[in-house]
Write a structure and sequence with these properties.
- The complex is a heterotrimer of chains A (about 325), B (about 300) and C (about 260).
- Helix content of chain B is about 75%, strand content about 5%.
- Chain B is mainly alpha-helical and about 300 residues long.
- Chain B has one domain: ABC transporter involved in vitamin B12 uptake, BtuC.
- In chain B, helix 1 packs antiparallel against helix 8 (about 190-215), helix 1 (about 5-40) packs across helix 9 and helix 3 packs across helix 8 (about 190-215).
- Chain B is globular.
- Chain C folds into two domains: about 1-80 and about 170-260, P-loop containing nucleotide triphosphate hydrolases (Rossmann fold); about 90-155, no CATH class.
- The chains are: A mainly alpha (about 325), B mainly alpha (about 300), C alpha/beta (about 260).
- The interface of A and B includes residues 127, 138, 251, 287 and 291 of A.
Chain lengths: ~325, ~300, ~260
């Protein structure tokens, strides 16, 4: 890992610590703290789905299902099996467990379904998400249709933020490796990728499993934030909402996904004041944005400081 | 002639399943036609179905129309809505990334739902209907409502078949869905043909909405999502883009769901539809009636 | 012993027989042409050799080992690389990334190493980059390494596709109409280059062309495919005068006496 990255991580984590201190001391009120936490959580969800949809080009609509698996199974660990562990160990352990369950499910369902292409895969993953949801509706141990109550509120901003930073870092590093390039080549041209010696099934499943893992982790964060898990919190509209972040940010652009996650979470909250009209405005904005920027806000480009320098250089040239 | 209790139960469920299935089939037809012609999963289609039920409800309660005039009014409004929807929200995106139009479809779906909630409230409304006549055939109960659903669905499907196979517009529809560019070169007005497809598909969805209102006696703004998804599953099951496939898929799904409920697993009903879908997709990716096509290398 | 050998290869699509009795052999270091009119089944034959299609029957042996039923990526890893008739580059990726992807099968570091970006990752990535650029230099594309491949002119896209195929380190290279869409001068240069590649990389090359005058000069042996069957086989001189070949090409305007 190079120096620049280490500095970046340290800086990013430092920002998180400062914000958490502001929250703890009451400068940032609990309402805003929750919004910031949700933004971080959606950043994890959007980047992980981007790995599947944007980077590998596999159209998945089942992210909410993996989120549900992670949420429920991590909550089982903290709520049902009260292991004698301190909270700061229990929580990450439960998130890891939730993520691994989701990843395992991703592997099991990915292997047969990832042979499907395009819309067929979309509809199959949508179906899988719904099947997972219906399973929880019928599972009495976790409260069935009434939902799972009494989950400890372990989630706070700092946890979520730090996990988000590391999740995104892992995904970005993966994309930059040769394995990530293999995934990108599948998006570009699956047949050509295969004839370049790339085991396309393996890499499709790999992207799917990594994506599912982080969706599971985010699900765990969600459960321990809301402290109640209900099957209806994981309908396919949630998958669509996450996909919307990916599309809005630009398929394949990680920074775009993060920006869109922050923007849409903020927008949802900002629209709350319109109560009844909230969803009408939201849906109209969605249509208008898609009509005017179908390639997303950033396209496939990454947002970086280089962009600014290019911009200023152009401006300088223009001045001369 | 006496039938055993089990046979009667079976026949009873068969009739229930066919009634439900014919509704799925009507909605699925719209999905399949639109997908066939512009390769778009029109997520808003389920909500057009819901709006059809709502229009039917108002036609009867506010304007005092009887069932069939209400059905026709609802179909006409839905057809117009379908055309407007396509022109405003889908046409500008025809040449961009397909996920973009999918997202617009989701946006439209959300808009229809929430606008309806805003106007009439989220509570289910009682759909006005006359008392049914029940016939007892060898111990099997057949209600006039079931006959109505089935008869209307069959008439509409025959009409659709006629339009697609025998009229000039139908020929144009088939040509455009086969190869849009070639159709354009042959002098077919592609835009009008696509609009027409949306009109027909939406009219069928509207009719299905009114039929469901009449059959179950309730209308609610959120009913479109699940019916829409199921109908789409039905379309994929039968082989998307293939009209008889949508009908077959709809019936198959209706029967499967009724069967699962009948043996006591009604809470798993919604999962069954998707489980069947996934199994079929894995073993026959193009659906029951679909032909496997390979990408040309 | 032949490096690549097929016997009785058949491919049917439903009731249609696209290729039947496809028997060819390639000896090590040979440059062989596969010609035939449009629709004769040449690309279908290629697709069978590279695992894109599974043959309906028959055998394909690479260095004595059967490769029927193997996945395209396995066959590539065993040493057959190809290009496509309608160029299939990774369009939205840079020129150098196109080549780097083809080196993937030789990458030793694992997923975890890639994520942790250890020294092994850094070293190997640097090596891949350097190898890729060196290969591009051979094809005179190194100065465009950071351009998106879709922005290259047509001829350079063809060259990049060949470079990318070579990056998989093949023993046998299959070229599907590499000269399609090129003007006579470009075609001439390309044929020279193909011969040079064969010598430089010690390859065996099978070349598809439907315009037979092109391959007459470069290929040592030529197979002629018509209606899915090999109708003639031999050195260019024999093919030129073979009455069956002339008959197959009748109606197509081919100047059989053309030297260039």
């Amino acid at each position: 890992m190079n120096k620049k990255k280490l500095i970046f991580i340290t800086g990013a984590v430092a920002v998180g610590v400062v914000v958490q201190l502001l929250i703890s001391s009451g400068v940032i009120n609990p309402y805003f703290a929750q919004i910031l936490t949700l933004m971080s959580m959606y950043a994890i969800l959007a980047t992980s789905l981007n790995l599947i949809n944007g980077i590998t080009g596999q159209f998945s609509l089942g992210h909410a299902g993996f989120m549900a698996l992670g949420g429920y199974f991590s909550a089982i660990l903290t709520t049902k099996l009260a292991l004698p562990l301190p909270n700061f160990l229990m929580f990450p352990l439960s998130l890891l467990f939730g993520g691994l369950v989701a990843a395992a499910a991703g592997f099991l369902v990915g292997l047969p379904t990832l042979r499907l292409r395009g819309d067929y895969l979309a509809i199959a993953t949508l179906g899988l998400g719904e099947i997972i949801r219906v399973m929880f509706v019928n599972w009495k141990y976790v409260g069935a249709a009434a939902g799972m109550k009494g989950i400890p509120g372990y989630t706070n901003f700092l946890w979520t933020y730090v996990i988000a930073v590391f999740s995104i870092l892992i995904i970005v590093n993966f994309i930059k490796s040769s394995h990530g390039r293999a995934c990108i080549s599948i998006r570009e041209d699956e047949i050509a990728a295969e004839t370049m010696g790339i085991n396309t099934t393996k890499y499709k499943v790999m992207a799917f499993v990594i994506g599912a893992f982080f969706a599971g982790v985010a699900g765990g964060i969600f459960g321990h934030l809301i402290r109640l898990l209900h099957p209806n919190s994981f309908t396919f509209m949630v998958s669509v909402e996450i996909l919307l972040m990916v599309v809005l940010g630009g398929l394949g652009s990680i920074t775009g996904s993060i920006a869109a996650a922050v923007f849409l979470t903020g927008l949802t909250e900002a629209l709350r004041q319109f109560s009844d009209l909230r969803m009408i405005i939201y849906s109209l904005m969605l249509i208008v944005i898609m009509l005017f920027r179908p390639q997303g806000l950033l396209g496939t480009r990454e947002f970086s400081l280089d962009m600014f320098s290019k911009f200023t250089k152009k401006a300088e040239k223009a001045e001369r | 002639m006496d039938l055993s209790a089990k046979t009667i139960e079976f026949l009873q469920q068969l009739i229930n399943g066919i009634s439900l299935g014919s509704v799925y089939a009507l909605v699925a037809l719209g999905y399949t036609m639109v997908y066939g012609i512009i390769k778009l999963i029109n997520f808003a289609h389920g909500d057009v179905f819901m709006l059809g039920a709502v229009f039917g409800y108002f036609a009867i309660t506010m304007f005092g129309l009887s069932f069939y005039p209400a059905l026709i009014v609802s179909m006409v409004i839905c057809a117009a809505l379908g055309v407007v929807m396509e022109r405003i929200a889908y046409k500008p995106l025809r040449n961009s990334h397909r996920v973009a139009s999918l997202m617009t479809a989701v946006g439209l779906s959300l808009f229809f739902q929430n606008f309806t909630v805003y106007r009439i409230g989220a509570q289910p409304k009682a759909f006005p209907r006359s008392a049914p006549v029940n016939w007892n055939v060898f111990g099997v109960n057949i209600s006039s409502r079931q006959v109505l659903i089935l008869a209307t669905a069959v008439v509409l499907m025959i009409a659709l078949h006629f339009i697609v196979q025998k009229t000039k517009m139908g020929k144009a529809m088939r040509a455009v869905s086969f190869d849009r560019d070639a159709a354009m070169l042959m002098g077919i007005n592609v835009n009008n043909t696509i609009s027409f497809t949306f009109a027909i598909g939406s009219a069928l969805a509207g009719a299905a909405g009114v039929l469901v209102g009449q059959y179950y006696g309730v209308v609610n703004p959120l009913m479109g999502t699940l019916y829409g998804l199921k109908a789409f599953v039905a379309a994929v099951l039968g082989g998307i883009g293939i009209l008889p496939g949508a009908m077959l898929g709809g019936l198959f799904l209706g029967l499967a769901e009724t069967g699962v409920s009948a043996i006591g697993y009604s809470t798993f009903r919604d999962a069954v539809a998707f489980a069947i879908l996934i199994i079929i997709l894995i073993f026959k990716p193009a659906g029951i009636l679909g032909k496997n096509t390979r990408e040309k290398v | 012993m032949a490096i690549l050998e097929t016997s009785n290869l058949v491919k049917t699509f439903g009731g249609l027989t696209a290729v039947s009795k496809f028997d060819i052999y390639l000896n090590e270091g040979e440059l062989i042409g596969l010609i035939g009119p449009n629709g004769a089944g040449k690309t279908t034959a290629f697709n069978m050799l590279t695992g894109v299609y599974r043959p309906s029957s028959g055998s394909i042996k690479l260095m004595g080992e059967s490769i029927v039923g193997q996945k395209p990526y396995e066959i590539t890893q065993k040493g057959i690389a190809r290009t496509f008739q309608n160029i299939r580059l990774f369009k939205d990726l840079t020129v150098v990334d196109n080549v780097k992807i083809a080196y993937h099968q030789n990458v030793k570091y694992g997923v975890a190493t890639g994520i942790l970006q250890t020294k092994q990752y850094v070293d190997e990535e640097a090596e891949i980059q350097q190898k890729a650029v060196a290969l591009l230099k051979i094809f005179n594309l190194d100065h465009k390494k950071n351009e998106l491949s879709k922005n290259l002119p047509y001829g350079e896209q063809r060259r990049l596709e060949i470079a990318r195929a070579l990056a998989t380190n093949p023993k046998v290279l299959l070229l599907d109409e590499p000269a399609a869409g090129m003007n006579p001068q470009e075609t001439h240069d390309l044929m020279e280059m193909i011969r040079w590649i064969r010598d430089q990389f010690k390859l065996t090359i099978l070349l598809i062309e439907h315009d037979m005058s092109l391959v007459m000069n470069v290929c040592e042996r030529i197979y002629v495919l018509d209606y899915g069957k090999i109708i003639a086989h031999g050195c260019p001189e024999d093919i030129r005068t073979n009455p069956k070949v002339i008959e197959a090409y009748l109606g197509e305007e081919v100047d059989l006496s053309a030297e260039n």
